Amino acid sequence: MVKTASVTGKPIQIKIFPQRLLQPETAERLLNEIDHVNGVIRMLIGGKNLPRKVTCGPGTGTDVNHPNMEIIHVGDCAFELHVMVGEVIVELEDESTKEELRNACERTLPFSFEFKQGFFIKKKATLTDYGKYGFKSKTDESINLEDERILGLMDPHAKPENSLCVINPEEEK
Fold this sequence. Notes:
The chain contains three helices and eight strands. With 173 residues, it is an alpha+beta fold. It has a domain at 2-53 and 60-123: ACT domain (Alpha-Beta Plaits). Strands 3-6-2-7 form a four-stranded antiparallel sheet, covered by helices on one side. A two-stranded parallel sheet has the order 1-8. Helix 1 packs antiparallel against helix 2.
C-alpha cells in the first residue's frame, strides 16, 4: 500500500512482526491505526499465502473458501487479503514519528510484537519492477513510473491491478 505523503527528511523503515498471524479484523485495525500516524510514506504487508484454488488431490481446481480471505478497508481503499498477515513493513518520513507508530501498534495488538528498524523495501527498481513497468526508452534505463514510491512493492506473481492499493490518492489538478 502506498500512502500519499511528501518525503522531507531521511526516510526510515520499520518492520512490525507480531508473535501471531493476524486475523483480518486485527490486520484491518492495525493498518488503519498505522494509516493515522503522521509521516507514513508506504506500508507493505506480508505473510503466509492463502491459495485461491486447490492445487493437488481429488479437489484439484476447485475454489478454496478460506475464512481469512476477506475484504478489508484501509483508509479510502478496500482490498481482499490474499495472505495471513504475519508482518507489516512501514516506511516513515523520519525518526520523529517512530514512537507514534509503536504506540499505534501497542494500542491495536493484544499480544507482543517485534519492532525493528532497518532496510526492508528496495529503493531502486527491481527486475520485477522492470518487468511490470518496462523501460522509458532504449537510451534511458529508468522505468516509466508516475510515482516512484511503488518501487520494490511489486509481487512478481500478482496481476498488476491486484497488486497495489493506493491510500488517499492525490487529486489530479
